[in-house]
Amino acid sequence: MKKTGPSLDWCIVRREEDGKWWVDSISDKENWDVGDLGIIDPKQFLHISELLDSMIVYGLESQLVDEAFFTFAIEEELKGGQVKLSRVRDSLLKAEDMLFALPDVLDEEKGPYADFLNHVTQKRVSMLNELIEFSEPYTQEEMEEVLAEKHNNDFLEGQRSHFSDELFAILDFVPEGFAIDADLEEDPETAKESSEDYSDLDTGLTEVAEKEEKLLPDEDLKWEEEEKEETTPYEGGAPDDQD
User: Fold this and answer.
1) Residues 81-100: tens digit of each pLDDT
2) pTM score
3) Number of structural domains, the chain?
4) Range of the domain at 27
């Protein structure tokens, strides 16, 4: 689904020490405030996509994913460690290139991103009730209350909220005192029968990764090889164990 927006054609981003990307400036200054505005990088979204795949058997609507984000591709490296991204209108899930994803928060309460968050929260709750034997069904209200309390605590501690943290908090959520068997959470046979076919995605990611390394000679802006060996590739959200 193509997105429209007043002059939303490009943005300039930087990668900070926390490994996350933040927006420094954006073409549509009328509708966007770049203060603490994060953007999800391709590697982060690849992991998010893997978590979303496990929810397809619970009724995840993949169309809502594409509707929830504005997509950007690398245009050029700038001085000072900045990178200019240009707007593209490709599907995040089926794109041949590695894309950055900026959530559509022009309407924070009723917009596409808000609808997407509500949808994935519902599906995560469905998954929890399927995989965990609660004495009573776990509810979306209970999950949202826990997440809201965590968000408030982070705010009081002066921690900046990044969209990737918000998504991982939902997609990895398990109530305190409970655990999910990893084999049950992602059954390869079930996933194969129920998920959509994105087999062409991995090939595209490999090809574009090589192009990105040529474009970004600065070691701090590459997807470092050693990061692939880390068990927690993202702060504040990524799970310790991945299948």
Assistant:
1) 999 999 998 888 777 778 99
2) 0.71
3) 1
4) 10-219
